[in-house]
Amino acid sequence: MSEFIEVKNIEKVYERKIALSSLSLSIKKGELIALIGPSGAGKTTLLNLLAANLSPDQGEITIDGQLLAEMTDQKKRAKKIGIIRQQFDLIGELPVIHNVLAGKLSEWGIIKSLLSMLFPQDKDDAIRALTRVGLSEKLYERTSALSGGEQQRVALARLLVQSPEIVLADEPVASLDPARAEDILALLVKIASEENQTLIASLHSVEYAKRYFDRLVALQDGQIFFDLPSSSVSDAQIASLYKLKEQE
Ligand SMILES: Nc1ncnc2c1ncn2[C@@H]1O[C@H](COP(=O)(O)OP(=O)(O)OP(=O)(O)O)[C@@H](O)[C@H]1O
Ligand SMILES: [Mg+2]
After folding, report:
1. What are phi and psi of 205, to 5 degrees?
2. 19-57 burial string, b = 16+ CB within 10 Å, else e?
3. Who contacts 159 (Cβ-Cβ below 8 Å, separation ≥6)?
4. What is the rounded (10 degree) CA torsion for 49, 197, 132, 99?
5. What is the pLDDT of residue 82?
6. Ligand 1 pocket mutation, candidates 10, 45, 245, criterion most atoms within 8 A of CB
7. Do the beta carbons of residue 141 and residue 24 sit within 8 Å?
8. DSSP readout, 57-96?
9. Ligand 1 pocket residue status of 220, Cβ below 6 Å
10. Cα–Cα distance measured from residue 111 to residue 41, given in angstroms and rounded to the nearest whole number
């Protein structure tokens, strides 16, 4: 079976700092992957490369056999890759429904996008998505009036409306309290499984990574330290993954 995402021998250097080196990774469609590793290991850099926000200095990334660097059509790329961030990227002053429908912006033409600022277009899609994340009653609420956990649900609803094949999440729950964090993570993984999305999320919590994800890709100093099914990762491996950095 051919791989869905292929990261081949990537190197990324910032000024003189090597953020990632000789990194290769194959990912199948529908896999749920947690990226773990100490601060500065290269998790955000890898996610930014996968999102095509950065380009590698060496190596290449292909998705479905196509070079990511050549996927320049925004509309097509938005159907392939969706991103969820720690800071949610919502417009606080707007009602929830507008933020959810922003998931469609890349697919809509300019007229429809402008119209949607005044009159929500494809409202049913937004209602359906908000119902799935448990926020159907907050449709017209000002987004900034919602709690952090609720705002992250709005961001998940926006992702549902965008409906990409791949979801990249950089510490998606870092700004939430532990109970809320687990809630959101469980929902993110549930949606990804139901939609057969490929999910790659960086996490600081190894506990959550093991509980919710099938596969752990551990980075250390810009390289893969281990890449294993969650169930087979030992406490000793986790300890040596994080220990090295603490001694610096
Ligand atoms: N814009 C930049 N300019 C220079 N160096 C950078 C830049 N971004 C990241 N780096 C360096 O590249 C390395 C990898 O950073 P990256 O942000 O990918 O790590 P991370 O694993 O996401 O860390 P964290 O867990 O703290 O988020 C680090 O040494 C970092 O200092
Ligand atoms: Mg990071």
Report:
1. -90, 110
2. bbbebebebeeebbbbbbbbebbbbbbbbbbbbbebebe
3. 82, 84, 103, 167, 191
4. 30
5. 93
6. 45
7. no
8. SEEEEEETTEEGGG---HHHHHHHEEEEETTTT--TTSBH
9. no
10. 43
Region of 233 (left: φ > 0; alpha: ψ -120 to 50; beta: rest) is beta
Which residue type, as a one-letter code, is found at position 33?
I
Domains and CATH numbers, the chain: 5-246 (3.40.50.300)
**Atom 2 of ligand 1: nearest residue by CA position:** 14
How does DSSP assign 186-245, residue by residue?
A: HHHHHHHHHTT-EEEEE-S-HHHHHHH-SEEEEEETTEEEEEEEGGG--HHHHHHHHHHH
pTM of the complete model: 0.92
- The pLDDT of residue 108 is 73
Rounded distance between C-alpha atoms, residue 135 and residue 95, angstroms: 13
Q: Across the strands, what pairs with 10?
A: 23
For strand 215-220 and strand 223-229, is the pairing parallel, antiparallel, or unpaired? Answer: antiparallel
Cβ of 153 closer than 6 Å to ligand 1, yes or no, is no
List Cβ<8 Å contacts ≥24 apart for 143-146.
143/90, 143/91, 143/92, 143/93, 143/94, 143/95, 143/96, 143/99, 144/92, 144/93, 146/96
Query: What is the pLDDT, as a whole number, of residue 245?
Result: 46
- Which one, of 197, 129, 119, lies nearest residue 161 by Cα? 129
Q: Which helix (H) or strand (E) holds 46?
A: helix 43-50
Average pLDDT, the chain: 91
Query: Rounded to the nearest whole angstrom, what is the distance from the C-alpha of residue 131 to the centroid of ligand 2?
Result: 31
In which residue ranges of the chain is pLDDT below 70? 1-2, 244-248
- Whose tokens are 């998505």? That residue is 129
